[in-house]
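_Backbone structure tokens_
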Amino acid sequence: MDIMDDVVEVSCPYCGEPSTISVGAGEEDEEYVQDCPVCCRPWKVRVRYRRDGSADVTVGAEGE
């Protein structure tokens, strides 16, 4: 079975620059750290999956 990734546009909580994050299909919520590709500061990425399988992605400053 092929699982397609969705691309979500987010803004860096530090520098405000837009960026994209690939989110795979999933059923369990995730949290991880990813560096901003522009200013290199760490984001805390939270992925919450809805019942319909779509993802709600939020990005915050690490430690929030």
